Amino acid sequence: MTMIIGSLLFAYAGMLGLCQGLERHFKQVWNRPCPRSLRLALRAAGWLGLAISLLLCAQAWGWAMGPVAWFGVISLAAMVLVMLLPYWPKLAVGLVAAVPVWGGLQMLI
User: Fold this and answer.
1) In the chain, how many domains are there?
2) Can you say how many angstroms the Cα of residue 48 is from the centroid of all Cα atoms in its chain?
3) CB 81 within 8 A of CB 15
4) Non-local CB neighbours of 5 within 8 Å, separated by 6+ positions
5) pTM, entire model
6) In the 8-state DSSP scheme, what is residue 96?
7) What does the alpha-carbon distance between residue 40 and residue 106 come to, in Å, rounded to a whole number?
8) pLDDT tens for residues 5-22?
9) Cα–Cα distance between 69 and 54 in angstroms, integer?
10) What residues form the membrane-spanning segments (predicted)?
């Protein structure tokens, strides 16, 4: 169960990184243009989050069903992001703080 939650959190973080890597979405949240170096770093972090999410899905379900579950996890994470971003953009960004909290709990368990 913890792998599934981790996969969802990393998928959300990855989708948010890719979203904030776009100029218009970054400006929507922060009310300023995004520097090129930050935009590239956000995109790279987004793809890294999605890759970690795929690995966690593969650990939870195996490589036969893991990629299928990963597409479902990505869809759920993207839906949450799409619903939050127009109304509560700062909350949408703040939810990424759940990733280190989950990681800390995993280390304690």
Assistant:
1) 1
2) 9
3) yes
4) 102
5) 0.90
6) G
7) 30
8) 889 999 999 999 999 999
9) 9
10) 40-61, 68-85
